[in-house]
# Entry
Amino acid sequence: MNKWYFIVSLGFLVTTISCEQSNTGSTTKNKTVDCKSSTLIFPKGNKVTGTVYQSILGKIGTQTSNVTFEPKSRTHWHLHPGGQTLLITDGVGYYQEEGKPKQVIRKGDVVNCDKNVKHWHGASIDQPMSHIAISIDHEKHPSQWFDSVTDEQYSE
# Structure
């Protein structure tokens, strides 16, 4: 519990430091502050494919990653034998399970991917999206990857 509290506190500190006073933005107690909504709480990480970046934050049993998608970028179809939770930390994107309609996901949303459910997720057409991906029991049962999401599937 102390580690999680530290990470959350550090994320708040980084976000707070990145805010600057300016003549535009929201006004708080007669001071105007402009905070960029795309300020990353955790490192963007390394490019994993196309314009998708991943920073692995923890990987003992359960893998926790910060994943950042530039507009139009997305994962391939995949599943997690242990299930996965996505905490959307910035932007707008999409999530779709095989055989179901695509859903719009936004900053503040939580997506629970059931065990062994084939799905994909990524940024919207015109906005980036970042999320924390928590993959349960990842060490023993890693993600299984399939075909890429076609432009037609992405646009449906």
Observations:
- The helical segments are 2-18, 151-155.
- The first strand starts at residue 20 and ends at 28.
